[in-house]
Amino acid sequence: MKxxxxxxxxxxGALLFLSAxxxxxxxxxxxxxxxxxxxxxxWGAEEDADxxxxxxxxxxxxxxxxxxxxxxxxxxxESSCKDAMLGDLENGADVFAFADDQAAALAxxxxxxxxxxxxxxxxxxxxxxxxxxxxxxxxxxxxxTADNGYFLYYNKAYFSEGDVESLxxxxxxxxxxxxxxxxxxxxxxxxxxxxxxxxxxxGLNEDGLTNYCTWNSTDGPITGVDVAQAMLSIAASPGxxxxxxxxxxxxxxxxxxxxxxxxxxxxxxxxxxxxxxxxAAKLPAFTCKxxxxxxxxxxxxxxxxxxxxxxxxxxxxxxxxxxxxxxNQRLRxxxxxxxxANANAAASPEVQASPAIAALLAQSExxxxxxxxxxxxxxxxxxAGNCARGNPSGASLQAQLDRMVEGVTAR
Length: 411
Description:
Structural class: alpha/beta
Distance between the termini: 104 Å
Radius of gyration: 29 Å
Number of strands: 18
Strand content: 15-25%
Shape: globular
């Protein structure tokens, strides 16, 4: 075979080889990486579902191109979130809303890790909200709202600004009008109002689980029996009724209730019902042992936590930051009337102009963070329920107080 023929055959073979190589798929290392799919489960209040879906949509738009998201919302009461979470941490929500009094237990159980960018969160939030989200000075959650307290709603068509300073006067007005002032004595949360500014105390022991309580004290300027007798006097007024939050709103709408103790979550509904006559103020003073005593209140915040067992911890933290951002706290106020924990949002003209927020701020001087263990609730509810019924058995008030305190402080 001639040399030029050999060269031609070699050239054709080389071309065929190169052509075959060109038709092969590039090796995996040379291809584009597949887009990451991130799945997150979020727990929150059922009534926040529409708001949260709107926030999820803006979050996905913000991080479009970085990942593909599947965010699943599941309704979960903020007040009982701790129990649900600690029941199965590894399968719990990645991001969850909860009441601040659960922070210590969640942190102790390892459900929450300290917030990495704590300085930025502290700098952006109200100091009271930061304190509520912290355990022993360490920030464990993102502050969401700073409005978990209660105050007085009243109908201006019946009460003057002077009237609402005194519970006695308000009960007189309500009785004369054949209407009611309501408060939920089936909830120990509200019953604290009568004991909080009397010198009688309740709170958590150093173990973070059990309570101390002196509500049955027989010493001091005001005793437990003095408070109990004041409650019986209130319950006996034809202008008073112990009603749940739902029953309170029903009464507002049908006209039978003209004042009541509640929180910002009812601000929109009350404004719709009473219109220009909707008023809000700090709680009034009640008469105890012949003297006016300013009613107290529990206060608190709603927080957003990131599950320490989340399979997507970085994205879960980003979503928690997004939910609690200034922009979305403003949106929450606009949609749900809830008071922001973000300092800039709280200082906005819209928030400052809210009667409910103004009333909550006025009441804050007479409130304290809710820090009680689980044994607090049932004994206080039992005691207050008997007072609401007028103590029909005539049982010793001191004996009932002793029984209540025994239950509250049980180990």
